[in-house]
Design a protein that fits this description.
Blueprint: E1 2-4, E2 9-11, H1 37-50, H2 53-59, H3 64-73, H4 75-86, H5 97-110, H6 113-120, H7 124-133, H8 135-160
Antiparallel strand pairs: 1-2
Helix pairs in contact: 1-2, 1-4, 3-4, 5-6, 5-8, 7-8
Length: about 160
């Protein structure tokens, strides 16, 4: 499913994961360069599919700040952005079960939220938002961090010879 920017409605056609051609994100005067309809379509399509502004912005070789500025200035683009971000993959959550599992496994192994989010293929914010909204996930998160902490403590004590 692709996004028909001109009509502000989803339109069926072939998937285009190619992104736009590289371009300058800023003009020499410091003003944000205009976004053409194709760039908006690609951005909105990826935003709706993956729910990640940074990643969708990379597809059209623009910064997040540039896209947020365009959203503030262009009411039609803002409305399309809102509609695209409301399309939630996998029914109930932007985070699939496999993403949550990869995140929690990596978090238990390393204790690092950024590294675990990267491994799962989503932003840290996605996982923090899910944690805030889902008490069961929050409990699993706490357990994973406790496991990582215990493993690191035991490794440190083993190097001293005091861990059994």
């Amino acid at each position: 499913m692709t996004f028909d920017w001109e009509q502000l409605t989803p339109a069926s056609s072939g998937d285009n994961d190619q992104g736009a051609q590289p371009r300058e994100a800023e003009t020499g005067s410091g003003a944000t360069a205009p976004l053409d309809a194709e760039s908006k379509r690609i951005f909105l399509e990826h935003l709706g599919r993956y729910g990640n502004v940074s990643w969708a912005a990379e597809r059209i070789r623009r910064s997040r700040a540039c896209l947020y500025e365009h959203r503030q200035k262009d009411a039609l683009f803002a409305a399309a952005w809102k509609r695209a971000s409301e399309r939630i993959p996998n029914g109930h959550s932007r985070l699939s079960a496999s993403m949550r599992c990869k995140f929690l496994t990596s978090l238990a192994n390393h204790g690092n939220v950024s590294r675990a989010a990267l491994r799962a293929g989503k932003s840290r914010a996605s996982f923090y938002n899910h944690r805030r909204k889902n008490p069961a996930f929050a409990a699993a998160w706490d357990d994973a961090q406790a496991k990582a902490f215990d493993a690191k403590r035991c490794d440190a004590e083993a190097s001293c010879g005091s861990c059994a």
